[in-house]
Design brief:
Layout (H helix, E strand, L loop, with lengths): L1 E7 L1 H18 L6 E6 L3 H16 L4 E5 L30 E9 L3 H13 L4 E9 L11 E5 L6 E6 L1 H4 L3 E6 L1
Parallel strand pairs: 2-3, 2-4, 4-5, 5-6
Antiparallel strand pairs: 1-8, 7-8
Helix pairs in contact: 1-2
Length: 178
């Protein structure tokens, strides 16, 4: 894979997450009912960073959970005989909560659909919203994020790769050729 360009460096990622955090604060008059759910793998560390920002900005600590959507994917049969499950269960109740799903990149919308299905299996939230660091377009389902860090029009032969220090040792978003 050949990198075409760096879309966001570490400072830009921090600024973008700060802006998303402020938008969440502005949208929710009562943060005590808001929970963040990070979609594994990179959505969870992004959700933790948003949690830290919100706590720093308004001194309110939101619950953060992680969600493995493996068994909710519509392409499960293509993943192999025994997909590995990484902590699928949220350790808090979503009933009547304002759930904000957090992911790194929204592309077709299928990951978000699977996450919504997984959340609904856990309970009936008051609302479900979606926050993404990057929206690259090419939706196959009618899903639109509520909070977007950056819109990046891409072609289908390009890949947007988010690297985070928690999983990759570096904070960077790059655009690559297949």
């Amino acid at each position: 894979m050949e990198e075409k360009t760096t879309l966001l460096d570490e400072l830009a990622i921090d600024r973008t997450l700060a802006r998303i955090s402020h938008e969440i604060i502005e949208h929710h008059k009562k943060l005590s009912n808001v929970v963040l759910v990070g979609i594994l793998t990179r959505g969870y560390p992004l959700a933790k960073r948003i949690q830290q920002n919100i706590e720093q900005f308004v001194n309110e600590r939101l619950e953060v959970g992680k969600l493995d959507i493996t068994f909710y994917r519509d392409d499960l049969s293509k993943l192999g005989d025994m997909p590995i499950l990484n902590n699928p269960v949220l350790d808090f109740d979503v009933e009547e909560k304002d759930v904000i799903l957090v992911d790194d990149v929204i592309f077709t919308g299928r990951t978000a659909r699977a996450a919504i299905e997984a959340i609904l299996k856990k309970g009936r939230p008051k609302t479900i919203q979606l926050a993404c660091l990057i929206d690259r377009g090419h939706r196959e389902l009618p899903i639109k994020p509520d909070y977007v860090g950056k819109n990046i029009p891409t072609s289908l032969d390009e890949i947007v790769k988010v690297s985070l220090v928690e999983s990759d040792g570096v904070n960077k978003v790059g655009l690559y050729r297949r």
